[in-house]
Amino acid sequence: MPLPITLMHFWNAGALLAAVFALSFLITGRVRRYAQGRLLDVPNDRSSHQAPTPRGGGLAIVLAFALGLLVSSAAGWLSGQSLAFLTGGLMVAAVGFWDDHGHVPARWRMLAHVLAAVLAVYGMGGMAVLWVNGQTVALGWAGPVLAVVFIAWMLNLFNFMDGIDGIAAGEALSVAASAAGLSLWFQPDTRLWLAYALLAMAASGFLLWNWPPARIFMGDVGSGFLGFMLGVFALAGGAGGGLSLVVWLILTGVFVVDASFTLAIRMISGQRWYEAHRSHAYQKASRVLGGHKPVTLRVLLINGVWLLPLAALAAARPELELGVLLLAYLPLLILAACLGAGRAS
């Protein structure tokens, strides 16, 4: 059972969060120096950038967050379950960093992703039940399978969406910080808000380097790790004891809708959906608006002005959350369609 929250706990948590932010910022600088001669992302006809740029900076997010989580667990602020999640995340990050250095066959990447997801689902007790719309839904044998698929999708979703400066790190910061605030308001005794806040601070330290125009890219090491952790957080809440899965789906709405809608259109239209492309809504928007920064700023604005209030409503009124989810997604779907997401250009 978690200890009651006191002012001293907040001071200690604040110091730890500041340390994670600073550590992420400093490690990103070191990774950038390392990557300039080894991990340059050279533009091609599918790229959204124009100059060779170092990649792999997401390693800073991984290391800073991992250290923060270990300190929190050792201090008794978070449960040991967090370490099981971290183990899978580190597995994903290791494969991603290897892939940033050179191509890793898709089958081996997928195997590592599935194994990491299985480990996380096992740590959550198998996901046999899910808390949706204020009620417990029994999933039976399908629960673990669906949970693994969901984590793998979230992992790859972040990889798909990490295509312009600042967007993936900004999304991770926005979503994790929003989740921390909602969790602190609605469920302070669970202490899960601290885990979310640690991820937000790790992402923000890197974002200072990745803000348009980016001085370093996140790479697969960071995008895969962020997608994995957010997917795990969402399912852990959906299994009970935290923010529900629907609340997380609302907070990550921009990424979920863009990636899912784009993939669906590419498959329906007979395109080679598995190949790299530039037809995501955010990529089309960057060409319409003439740069990366206007798109990243608009994503953050949508998250703060539209999705966060709706997520708060869903957290306050769980019996309404599915309706709130549809309300949250409707304008995002319309926007993706208007931008021509998924259509060859």
Structural write-up:
- With 345 residues, the chain is mainly α.
- Helices cover 69% and strands 3% of the residues.
- It has 13 helices and four strands.
- The protein has helices spanning 7-35, 58-74, 81-101, 106-123, 142-161, 167-186, 192-210, 219-238, 245-251, 253-268, 281-289, 292-316, 321-338; strands spanning 40-41, 53-54, 129-132, 135-138.
- The strands form two sheets. Strands 1-2 form a two-stranded antiparallel ribbon.
- A hairpin with a 2-residue loop joins strand 3 and strand 4 (135-138).
- Helix 1 packs parallel to helix 7.
Short description:
The chain has 345 residues and is mostly helical.
Shape: globular
Number of β-strand runs:
4
Strand ordering within the main sheet? 1-2
Low-confidence runs: none
List keywords for this structure.
single chain, 345 residues, mainly alpha, two-stranded antiparallel ribbon, 4 strands, 69% helix, 3% strand, globular
Topology:
Blueprint: H1 7-35, E1 40-41, E2 53-54, H2 58-74, H3 81-101, H4 106-123, E3 129-132, E4 135-138, H5 142-161, H6 167-186, H7 192-210, H8 219-238, H9 245-251, H10 253-268, H11 281-289, H12 292-316, H13 321-338
Antiparallel strand pairs: 1-2, 3-4
